[in-house]
Amino acid sequence: MTASPLESPPLLETENLVRVFGTGENRVAALQGLTFEIHQGESVAIIGKSGSGKSTLMHLLALLDQPTSGVVAMRGQVVSDLKPKQIAKVRNTTFGFVFQQFFLNAHETVLENATLPLKIAKVPKAERHRQGTEILEMLEMGDKLKAKAINLSGGQQQRVSIARALINSPEILFADEPTGNLDSETSAVVEDILFGLNEQGQTLIVVTHDEDLAAKCARQIRIQDGQIIEDSVVNA
Amino acid sequence: MKLRDIFTTALANTMRTKLRTFLTVIAVVIGAFTLTMTSGIGAGINKYIDAQVDAMGDTNQVSVMPAQTMDANVGLTAGEPQEYDPDAQGTVSDFGIPSMDEEDIEEIEQIENIEFVDPVIFVDIEYLETPDGTRYTVPSAGFASEQSMVEYAAGGPGSNAEDAYELVIPTSWLSAFDIDDVANADDVIDQEVIITAQDLEGNAETIEATVVGVAEETITGAGTSPIPSFGLTQQIAEINNTAGGTTIPFTYIQAMATVHDLATNEAQIKADLEEIDMVGQTVEDQMGFIGGIIDAITWVFNGFALIALLAASFGIVNTLLISVQERTRQIGLYKALGMTSGKVFTLFSTEAIVIGLLGSVIGIGLGSVVGVVGNALLINGPLDSVPGLTLYAIEPLALLVIALVIIGIAFLAGTLPARRAATKDPIEALRYD
Ligand SMILES: Nc1ncnc2c1ncn2[C@@H]1O[C@H](COP(=O)(O)OP(=O)(O)OP(=O)(O)O)[C@@H](O)[C@H]1O
Ligand SMILES: [Mg+2]
Predict the structure, then answer these.
(1) Per-residue DSSP letters for B81-98?
(2) Which ranges in B111-258 belong to alpha helices (H)?
(3) Which letter, b or e, does each residue of A50-67 get, where b requires 16 or more Cβ atoms within 10 Å of its Cβ?
(4) How many angstroms is it from A214 CA to the middle of ligand 1?
(5) Residue among B330, B340, B427 minimizing CB distance to A64
(6) What does pLDDT average to in each consecutive run of 10 residues of chain A (236 residues)?
(7) DSSP string, B147-170
(8) Nearest CB partner across the interface for A120, out of B339, B426, B427
(9) How much helix, strand and coil, in percent to the nearest 5, is found in chain A?
(10) Measured on CA atoms in the order A57, A62, A65, A69, is the torsion positive or negative?
(11) In this complex, do B1 and A122 lie within 8 Å of one another by their Cβ atoms?
């Protein structure tokens, strides 16, 4: 299923990726020179202890942040060469994000939150609602469509944030601890959805410190202190 | 995001912090209200003046004065004593105001297209006796030329013939003829009255005069007292200025010239008058002056309103800056999910526009209601003696301009916070607490 790296440029690749936060005493080198490739259709788990740099790496791969030095390229195209508008478009239509802190708009409804990427993409309201309802029902949130996000439990919020990430049928899904707040049963539902989509060709990049979830991915990249200490293909 | 979505999102965001929005909007409302009131009052009064000018639209009269009257230092000529010159006599008289004599009047009469010159003469009527024998005082008789400036409830202006002794009375004088209703004003026409005037020695002389018209009162004050015709005025003046068979030559501070087709000949008449050191003013010239003053006052108040709006715009800046601060995360999320900086800018500018729109709609609505109701209360209440008065008029175009100006100011105020929102870095914004 994975395209050969020799045939086409990898979906995402990094070269000597460095991200430093702050200066002087506050200086933190979150990523210290990472080089790897991710191909279309892969499922990749980024694992590591808290503070090891997982979220930082995900943000860089997702074009949300700029590296201090080094390169991120998408399909062979160096990302820093892209115009802000092009990057915005890629984020809106090609990527899906599940943020570690969900970042829902507290005063908007579940449906409004889940369909925000479609709203940004100028999809008409009726169509937004149709797609949003469908995906929220899949995540067992069908009875909460009109509820305000602020009134949801942590697990429910997480599912809304997953619905929002999937709503634009992204080619690449970035998920930062997507099951962190879910009970085992709901976790299973979410995992089924994520890996089901991956089987249909969607590239999945999961940040987690849940070894069980990581083990379900075809590839694990283990990070420690901003460096890759292991890059293994388990389920190959 | 579609424009409609941007607008509804902006509206929802502004409505989320109702109190804050309300307070910000109030400042805008004050500005909008003031602008609506002042422009409405200006429009109303100007409309009234226009109506008054239109009412005498058929007048072909030009008021003529010596040119020096227009000089600021008339009557205050300080400095060296002037040697007596018999020819210069008559150029300065009544209370130091330059005046005209018969010769001047004849000169004016000779100007092309001037049909008739009616010098303004102050006459002193002792009393007016109605057919039932009652005598009424006439504190200040009108000028003959006013006869063609007023509107008539009945009859019309008297003739300009020297031997026609005719009189126009105001509607308020109908009661002296036992007529209680203006609708019956016609009954007074052709009634004979006796006018008594004193000569310089205090001897009373009487003239019989015929009532020919009933005048409505106007803003200029014309038509508020009885107006003798040209011939009657001359006759009374002659009595007033006679002592023992000798009549003092008249001097006039002003004359009303009737012009053939004033609309086409105005420039020529004015130029010819200038040549003989006279100034001619049409009714429009004089009224236009009042209109100019009203416009100036209107603009002063508009200036205050704009200052209020300037203050309001800082309120908008402040409110939106707080809003941008509070919603840093939301902005980060929008950008992370692919919203362009341009759209973020538009979103926040739209919030400013929403505030401007709310403020102008409320302020203009309130101003219009207060203006219309206040106008109705005043002209039907304390001011109902002024016929046809309007103090407030709604001019849709002016209101639209006011709304656009306010929305424009709100938009400008919004650009600073909107720029701040647009340039936020998504990750920084998302991490913001
Ligand atoms: N914007 C920032 N400014 C300063 N330091 C930062 C910033 N973002 C991350 N860091 C630091 O970089 C390091 C890596 O952080 P990151 O969020 O990537 O960790 P993580 O692996 O995702 O941890 P967790 O599992 O707890 O989510 C941490 O030491 C963190 O404090
Ligand atoms: Mg993290």
Answers:
(1) PPPP-GGGTTSB-GGG-B
(2) 230-240
(3) eebbbbbbbbbbbbbbeb
(4) 20
(5) B427
(6) 62 95 91 94 93 93 93 92 92 92 91 96 95 94 94 91 94 91 86 92 92 92 93 69
(7) GGTS-EEEE------TT--EEEEE
(8) B339
(9) 35, 30, 35
(10) positive
(11) yes
Taking an 8 Å cut-off on Cβ atoms, the answer to whether B337 and A91 are in contact is: yes
| Interfacial residues of B (vs A; Cβ cutoff 8 Å) | 1-2, 5, 16, 329-330, 332-341, 343, 426-427, 430
Pick from B353, B317, B336, B319: nearest CA to B424: B336
* Cβ pair A59:B427 closer than 8 A: yes
Structure-token pair, residue B136: 């009424």
More confident residue, B221 or B191: B191
Q: Which residue has the tokens 């791969």?
A: A61
Q: Is the ipTM of this complex over 0.85?
A: yes
Substitution target from B337, B425, B428 for chain A, most A beta carbons within 10 A: B337
Beta strands in B57-124 (DSSP E): 61-66, 114-119
Show the tokens assigned to B82. Answer: 């002037």
Give whole-number Cα distances, B269 to B91, B274, B289, in Å: 21, 9, 20
Residue-wise DSSP of B376-388: HHHHHTTTTTSTT
Domains and CATH numbers, chain A: 12-233 (3.40.50.300)
